[in-house]
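Letters spell out the chain; backbone shape is given numerically. Both lines appear below:
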Amino acid sequence: MIVVYTLEADHLAARPAKAGDALPDNTVWIDLLNPTHDEDIQTETWTKTAIPTREDMVEIEESSRFYTENGGQYLTAPILYFTQDKHHAISPISFILTGSFLVTVRYAEPRAFSLFVSRASKPGNGLINEKCSGVTILLGIIEAVTDRIADILEGVASDIDQNSHTIFRRSDNDKPMTTKNFRDSLTRIGGQGAFLSKVRESIAGVSRLLVYMAAITEQNSYKKETKAWIKSLERDTQSLSTYVDFLSNKITFLLDTVVGLISIEQNAIIKIFSVAAVAFMPPTLVASIYGMNFEFMPELKTMWGYPMAIGMMIASAVIPLLIFRKKGWL
């Protein structure tokens, strides 16, 4: 699908296009979403630049993600998006600066794009003006991406705090954590850690793109406002990266805590069995002795022999338990 955005005074206007259509006047942005081969050819005809394939966009080499070809600047960054099965994933998105407009090639629908379009389509949005160019659109999208990541991280931080509350702030009246509780905690914390790794990958990709953009602006006569905007976005991505590291450390701490609690519970169970084994060893010894049935054992022929043996077994079991309790081993 091709959507062409034209500049209308102080906002953008979206116009769906098809293969064979003419490029509208005042076009500043061509957005390709899951493009077909014909749509790629049509866009190449409009822009006189090659459109990267999906296989090209997946490449992780620096030379494959940031390069110049036929006067166009190609930049690719992994962007976080929400899948149909309610999971976060990463998809590479290519930005092509050619002439005065921007071409985006994507095979996913990040929320940041729809948020940017919603803002840029409103008159008086404070972002679009009559001198808007493809660089302005690109930086606006990157700003929406960083804002979206910041919102997501706020939700992750809230989930981590909730897990921390579940683990650490348990009152004496709460039931001990069961195996299912530990399993659920590990699953949630592990999932958050895996998600943070995706966020870190996306932030790193965006940061690399901004570094390349900063180099481009130094080589070309861009306005000071554009350079300052890039610097501001670089600081934003750096702060987000630092915050992700902080959350990752909390995740690691919670994982270590849960594993430690599981170890404590296992040790407690083993201790119970160990104490029970030690407590029943003396009664077993007494029962074994009086189960020999030797002729010369006088207790076997007396009325008090049986109760005496029972009493000795009970006493030999209770006394070790009392000693263990007094020493704090139970």
Q: What stands out?
A: Strands lie at 2-8, 11-17, 27-33, 66-69, 72-82, 88-98, 101-106.
